[in-house]
Design a protein that fits this description.
12 strands; alpha+beta; 295 residues
Amino acid sequence: MAIPEKLFKYCSIDTAQLILSSRTLRWSSPVVYGDPLELQHLTPVNFDRASLLQATIKLAASMIFASSKPQGDTPLINAIRRWREEDRFGNPEEAEGVLGELLAKMVDQRMSTVQNYLKLWEDYNRKVRVCSFSSRPDNTVAWDHFGNNHRGVCFRFDCTDQALARRPQPIQYGNTRPELADLRDQIDAILNNPPVDEKPNFESLFTVKSLSRKLEQEWRCFRLSEKRQINDEPSTWVDDLTFETSELSAVCFGIDTSEADKKMIVSLMKEHIGHTRCYQTNLANGRYDLEIQKA
């Protein structure tokens, strides 16, 4: 997907006043959004030690009696191949009894790795800041949800490499919710001992949302907070960052934005931004679509 040069920020009149008067955009840790469907710093993994141990034992035992030899060159895979050649066990249940003691230590090591991963994840949530935009100014869902039900405004922002909102990432919509650490991946790690990823791509976990949100057409910009001290209260994990006046190129008013609010926004644009390129949304004739016209 091509990276757009312009994106759109929907907001209420009150928020628009703050944006214009302070010439800042609020960047927040995703937990501040309050979306219960989104991952956040305290999201648990989908397994515990007992379930990981039991699942690993079951799979390892099944590999001993499988029709094909297991592939790989790790101590556990080599042991499984040797047991197959020796006909060490009479049935999977017998193998599971021996494997339990052998795999317990490996599972403990893996759980320690998972805990370290979760600590990195929590630290990332403290530091990451996200600013959300939409791809179009005529998005009825965005006007409904973020533009105060068509009574607010939509700002057009620059998102090129020199802008505050640079390198935006499109949200991918689907029915599968991402997991912080999947049980199957942990079993694979125990069996095959892959190299450890020292720089996990946590950002990608915040670029996936439910298919039901697809009509929002959301893009997100990411950056890490430059604050030295970040406390334990998630509601404070926000930064108000200044943008250049040239980065805000236009404002679009909603269908039901009052004339008084329009005049006030135009006045603030003149005072703080230096230009007043304004547009108006109108309902298209005979369709449930919006048309954008110069105000």
